[in-house]
Amino acid sequence: MEIPISLFVCLGISAALAVGLPIVLAIYGKVRWRAAFPLRAAALGALSFVIAVLVLESLLHSVVFSAFPTLSLRPIPYTLYGCLAAGLFEETARYLCLRLLCRRQGGSAALGLAYGVGHGGIESLLLAGAPLVSSLATLAAVNGKTDAQLAALLGGQDMADTLRSQVEALSTAPAWQNLLGGYERAVALALHLALSVLVWMAASGRLPRWFVFVAMGLHALANVPAALVQCGVLSNPLLAEGLITLASGLAVWYVSALYAKCRTLPAAGGAAGGGQAP
Predict the structure, then answer these.
(1) 161, 175, 225, 70 alpha-carbon torsion, rounded to 10°
(2) What is the rounded radius of gyration, in angstroms, for the C-alpha atoms of the chain?
(3) Are 223 and 83 in contact (CB under 8 A)?
């Protein structure tokens, strides 16, 4: 079985983005803003994603899909439920954590960015980085192997045939489509950084607390294209990524405009800045 080199290259680029970008951003933030960019905020962001999404939201999905087994076949209710659930769980966790961090440190927007790197970074690593690296390792292991070698390697012809069909599905699709996974993670990470700054402004008193609901709405909106893909309404990958980019870009622009207006305002209660503001 021969794997096209273009497939390795495109998967490798996506894996490098999904794994490397959060690490680069964490290093840059720490060097650029020093104490104002606490790595414990990034760690808390990562932990909150695991608890809020992989544990609590997953439990809710189990209950809901058990009660409504045909929900995924109904695009509008499925999209509304999935997007609102994501916004509710992630932004509630983001607010609670940033509220706690603001009470202890106050700080600048770099605090929100640090949280966003952790929250979006662990999502990138777990949901894209790990599967992409696993796919690369699998392709490298089977590349150049004959059917007999594959069967011996995997312990049976049935497993070899299953793996072959999976690899052929990857190989027959245009190689460039495998770049979209890394691109999507970069866009999602930008969204998480923007939402973290928005929620930080609400948690620190620079904006009213109800802006947390704005963050939930922006998060839900950005998830709509992915939900439409999952329920089969949207099949064009470029269109889906374009819509995700548009929604995320609007969120980044909106948060940037809000921050420009209120960056000079003190936090409610007179919290002092924790370092150079970004």
Answers:
(1) -10
(2) 21
(3) yes
Q: Does the pTM exceed 0.85?
A: yes
One-letter amino acid at 72 equals S
- Residue 235: count of CB within 10 angstroms of its CB: 9
What the block records as the tokens of 186 is 């970069």
Identity at 118, one-letter amino acid code: G
Residue type, 186: A
- The SS3 of residue 68 is coil
Cα torsion through 99, 101, 105, 110, rounded to 10: -100
What is the rounded distance in angstroms from the CA atom of residue 133 to the CA atom of residue 125?
10
Report how far apart, in Å, the C-alpha atoms of 275 and of each of 155, 235, 243 are.
58, 46, 36
User: What average pLDDT values come out for the chain (278 residues) when binned by 10 residues?
Assistant: 86 97 98 95 98 98 96 95 97 97 84 98 97 89 77 74 76 87 97 98 94 98 96 94 97 96 66 43
d(CA 87, CA 217): 7
Using DSSP's 3-state secondary structure scheme, residue 179 falls into helix
User: Which residues are CB-neighbours of 32 under 8 A, at least 6 positions away?
Assistant: 110, 278
Residue 20's CB: how many other CB atoms inside 10 A?
13
